[in-house]
Every structure is written in structure tokens, then in C-alpha cells.
Design brief:
The protein has 244 residues and is of the alpha+beta class. It has a single domain (30-243), classed as Glutaredoxin (3-Layer(aba) Sandwich), CATH 3.40.30. It has ten helices and five strands; from the N terminus they run ααββαβααααααββα. It has a five-stranded mixed sheet with strand order 1-3-2-4-5. Helix 4 packs parallel to helix 7 (149-158). The termini are far apart.
Length: 244
């Protein structure tokens, strides 16, 4: 009897191992962590680390967000602060908003894959729709024991993406270099946590938004943007006077 039980357990163990190998084989090339990427020049790094923007490409002021899709604070920012920024500044053409990936992989094991999923959605022109969907469902996938590729594919379907193209992208190493470069760019700019918001005029006079809570971030963003707008207006007035 004992021999039969042992044989059965061994058989089940073998089947489990085979099943594990089959599941692993199906996603063996799926990049779920940063890759080795050595770029020492910041200008080259910026080229390798494109952000995803919304708003007028030529807007005088740029807001940069470094975010992690598994970060609860980033979810709160996406749902409460960014919509206010869009209405107040982006839709009028006053500000360009740029999203950069900064997955905190040491504490958020699925954040890198989520960042790649966002890039795969952007490939089909639906980054912001996917951005909202993946944040909206954050609690459903964040605690998954395994990489939640199936959930990410479901969200792609919900926003109307081509399933085959998205799946092919997600279950590869595509954009692993871009997300890694985004992380390195953030580190070069002093980013250590998420969400980090930087505001700049044409790449100069970079200001960090320091706020105690997510709720405090919009008033601080508003203050900095309005200060920069006043500076731009003053400089334009001085230039006009000098030319007359």
C-alpha cells in the first residue's frame, strides 16, 4: 500500500514538473526584469529612454512623471491628479505631459512586466487607455504569485487592442531595453521613488514637486507651472521692449 502511495506521489510530482516546464517554456523569452544596459552618456541615454507624451509637442513647459504601475501612489496620482493637470494645462497646450517607466523591481515584482505591457499597448496607439485600465485593476494583478501576463492580455482586449500582436509583444523581450533605459534615466535625474514629478522649461530649470501626500501634489504642480508661465511672460515682455 505504502509503495503504491509513494509511486502515486512520485507520478504526481513528475506531472507537476512537466506542467511547470510547459508553462515556463511558453514564456521563456518574456522579459520580467531589467536587462544589462551600459550607457554612460546622458544624452545617449535620453535617446534610448523615450517617454510617452500627451499634449502639444511644442508646449513651453513639460511635466515628467516617473511611475510604477504596481505602485499604489502612482495609481492614486493617475486617478486624481493627472486628470486635473490635463484639464488645467495639457488640453490648452500650455504643458506637455510625459510618462516614464520607473518600476521599483525590488518591492514590486510585476512592475517591470507591467511597464513592458504599457509599451506594447503604445505600439498600437493605446498607451493612455491601457495605462488607465492597468491602474484601475491594480489590486487584481499586483498580488499574483506568477507574472500576470494573462491578466495584462485581458486588459489589452478590454481596450480594444489586437490580441495576437499584444500577446506576441508581451511574451517576448521587446521594450525591455527601453524600460531599463527609462529606469537608468530616472536614476540619473535623482529619482528614487514613485511617483516622482519633475517640471521643466525646455530641459532647463528642472523643478521637483515636493508634496507630503498625493492629494497635495496638484496644488504644488499648479504653483510651479504658474511660476514658470509668469517667468516666460516676463521674458517675452522684456524681449519685446528690447526690440522696440
Amino acid at each position: 500500500m505504502n509503495g503504491k502511495i509513494i509511486a502515486l506521489l512520485v507520478g504526481l510530482a513528475v506531472l507537476a514538473a512537466v506542467g511547470l516546464n510547459l508553462r515556463s517554456a511558453g514564456s521563456a523569452d518574456m522579459a520580467v526584469a531589467p536587462i544589462d544596459l551600459e550607457i554612460n552618456d546622458m544624452s545617449e541615454l535620453a535617446d534610448r529612454a523615450p517617454g510617452i507624451h500627451v499634449g502639444d509637442e511644442n508646449a513651453p513647459i513639460t511635466i515628467l512623471e516617473f511611475a510604477d504601475f504596481q505602485c499604489p501612489g502612482c495609481m492614486a496620482f493617475a486617478g486624481t491628479v493627472k486628470p486635473q493637470v490635463d484639464v488645467a494645462f495639457v488640453e490648452s497646450g500650455a504643458v506637455k505631459f510625459v510618462f516614464y517607466d520607473f518600476p521599483l523591481t525590488s518591492i514590486h515584482p510585476h512592475a517591470f512586466l507591467a511597464a513592458r505591457a504599457g509599451r506594447c499597448a503604445d505600439e498600437q496607439g493605446a498607451f493612455w487607455e491601457y495605462h488607465d485600465e492597468i491602474f484601475r485593476n491594480q489590486s487584481a494583478w499586483s498580488f499574483s504569485a506568477a507574472p500576470p501576463s494573462g491578466a495584462f492580455e485581458d486588459y489589452a482586449a478590454q481596450v480594444g487592442l489586437d490580441q495576437g500582436d499584444f500577446r506576441s509583444c508581451l511574451r517576448s523581450d521587446r521594450y525591455a531595453d527601453v524600460v531599463t533605459a527609462n529606469m537608468q534615466l530616472g536614476q540619473g535625474l535623482g529619482v528614487t521613488g514613485t511617483p516622482t514629478i519633475l517640471i521643466t522649461r525646455g530641459g532647463r530649470d528642472v523643478r521637483r514637486v515636493d508634496a507630503g501626500t498625493i492629494a497635495d501634489m496638484y496644488p504644488e504642480i499648479q504653483r510651479i507651472v504658474q511660476e514658470l508661465q509668469a517667468e516666460i511672460e516676463a521674458e517675452s515682455g522684456a524681449a519685446a521692449e528690447g526690440g522696440s
